[in-house]
DNA sequence: TAAGAGTCAATAGG
DNA sequence: CCTATTGACTCTTA
């Protein structure tokens, strides 16, 4: 299926896919990167007169954008106009609904994004700047609906026979994205299984709360478990080794992201004016001892050693053991951060300009609200929101130290 | 090679 | 329908 479309910007029409991978040479029309740009009244970036630059070029020269403000605005516009993430994602960003949801809910700060990661934000910014953004999307929505209706009708009138007994067999379309129209690229798992039409999907492993808890506990002990530990965890929990490995990759990544968020909130303060304070963020469900707070709690940090689910024993101490437990108490803030990834950029330790206050926001109708809080004055003392994360972060530091310790040359220490 | 960054896509709730 | 979560996968990086 591919009726969808994408009306995307020009950009290369290579046989590849619409969303522009690279651009080697020259863009036909246009030029003029011009350093200067926006005049003081204009909100932001690139209003280049009107050039059809490829997005990547724009990403490359884009000034720092405030991802938090951008996502906030996008969410507002979408909800105000009843536009869904799916539509928005597929037609404007070239991403699927789940990715959009994630991006809008937890945007990483600009300086921690790779070039590729910045792309969606630049697209969002561009979209926000387009005066007709909403109408265009709404038009697409209409078109989709029309197509949908059409399809429904035809199938109804049709007497196709799909054998048997009146079951509605799942129809498989299985085609996933159309290469041509939709953006995207990255087809995941090729279904290279020829035959075997019988739906053998691959169940999508769903870890039980108990397994997650055990994994989280293990993470607190050792964010970077050795292969041996991984094997043990896998066998004890009855999971595939790869599942455990993936879990750790994902968990580390996601924990890291939450730290960024907390950092942002703490730094910028949230004081739009009225607004009762940031909504607090996720309340993590119930269940697990969970790391994220859950209403009060804790105090002493976990460590929880207790049998793994089904009752088992643990075995840690593999490797050299390290014991770390802490609770960095400082209320203050700056969790130690290590890693400033991405080459260039700065690692801004706490303090400063996490975001520029650009943003002029062109109104757009509704919205009360929004806008970025005054940058910040101070840090919010006493914010209790995280806790174990910091502890985990410390373990992280320890891990890196151990790693660094193996190197001779201090210059290679990446701290 | 392992870790990290980005995403996808199945799925669980509304 | 729509949104949020999350295991797994592809590409980069170092």
From TrEMBL:
Basic and acidic residues bias locations: 313-323
Top-level taxon in the UniProt lineage: Eukaryota
CUT domain mapped to chain residues: 56-143
Record localization: Nucleus
Residue spans binding DNA: 200-259
Positions with biased composition (Low complexity): 361-373
Stretches the record annotates as Disordered: 1-51, 160-204, 267-390
Homeobox domain: residues covered: 198-258
Regions of compositional bias (Basic residues) in chain numbering: 189-204
Family: Belongs to the CUT homeobox family.
Entry protein name: Homeobox protein cut-like
Residues of the full protein shown: 917 to 1331 of 1331
């Amino acid at each position: 299926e591919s009726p969808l479309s994408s009306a995307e910007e020009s950009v290369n029409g290579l046989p590849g896919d619409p969303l522009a991978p690279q651009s080697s040479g020259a863009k036909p029309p246009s030029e003029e990167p011009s350093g200067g740009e926006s005049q003081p009244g204009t909100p932001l970036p690139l209003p280049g007169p009107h050039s059809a630059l490829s997005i990547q070029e724009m990403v490359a020269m884009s000034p720092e954008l405030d991802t938090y403000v951008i996502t906030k605005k996008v969410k507002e516009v979408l909800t105000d106009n009843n536009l869904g993430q799916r539509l928005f994602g597929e037609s404007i960003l070239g991403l699927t609904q789940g990715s959009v949801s994630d991006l809008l809910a937890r945007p990483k700060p600009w300086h921690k994004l790779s070039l590729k990661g910045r792309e969606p934000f630049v697209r969002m910014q561009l979209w926000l700047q387009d005066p007709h953004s909403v109408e265009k999307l709404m038009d697409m929505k209409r078109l989709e609906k029309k197509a949908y209706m059409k399809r429904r009708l035809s199938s109804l009138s049709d007497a196709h026979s799909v054998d048997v007994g009146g079951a509605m067999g799942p129809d498989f379309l299985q085609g996933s994205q159309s290469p041509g129209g939709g953006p995207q690229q990255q087809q995941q798992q090729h279904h290279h299984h020829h035959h075997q039409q019988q739906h053998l999907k691959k169940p999508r492993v769903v870890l039980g709360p108990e397994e997650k808890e055990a994994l989280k506990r293990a993470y607190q002990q050792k964010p970077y478990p050795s292969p041996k530990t991984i094997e043990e965890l896998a066998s004890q929990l009855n999971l595939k080794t790869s599942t455990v490995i993936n879990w750790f990759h994902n968990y580390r990544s996601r924990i890291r992201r939450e730290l960024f968020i907390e950092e942002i909130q703490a730094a910028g303060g949230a004081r739009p004016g009225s607004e009762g304070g940031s909504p607090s963020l996720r309340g993590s469900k119930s269940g697990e001892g969970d790391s994220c707070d859950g209403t009060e709690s804790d105090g002493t940090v976990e460590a929880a050693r207790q049998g793994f689910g089904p009752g088992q024993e643990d075995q840690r101490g593999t490797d050299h053991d390290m014991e770390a437990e802490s609770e960095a108490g400082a209320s203050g803030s700056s969790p130690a951060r290590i890693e400033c990834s991405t080459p260039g950029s700065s690692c801004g330790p706490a303090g400063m300009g996490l975001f520029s206050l650009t943003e002029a926001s062109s109104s757009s109708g509704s919205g009360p609200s929004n806008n970025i809080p005054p940058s910040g004055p101070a840090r919010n003392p006493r914010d209790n929101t995280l806790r174990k994360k910091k502890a985990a972060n410390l373990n992280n530091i320890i891990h890196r130290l151990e790693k660094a310790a193996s190197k001779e040359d201090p210059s290679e220490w990446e701290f």
